[in-house]
Amino acid sequence: MAKGRTLWILLIGALVIRLLTLGLYPLMDTTESRYGEMARLMVETGNWLTPFTTTMCLFGVNHHCLLG
Q: Cα separation of 68 and 65, whole Å?
């Protein structure tokens, strides 16, 4: 009987911890769309060596990431 009670306490504890931490992480991960945008810009600009997005360079060197 004590073994079953311990299991229920552990399950309820895990559920409470899970519910309390729901707001700590985003609903959707933006990594996949960011990598897709990088691939699109690499094809569009022909720059296959420096992956970048429209707002930031992956390697942090902004003067190499201009789209002009």
A: 9
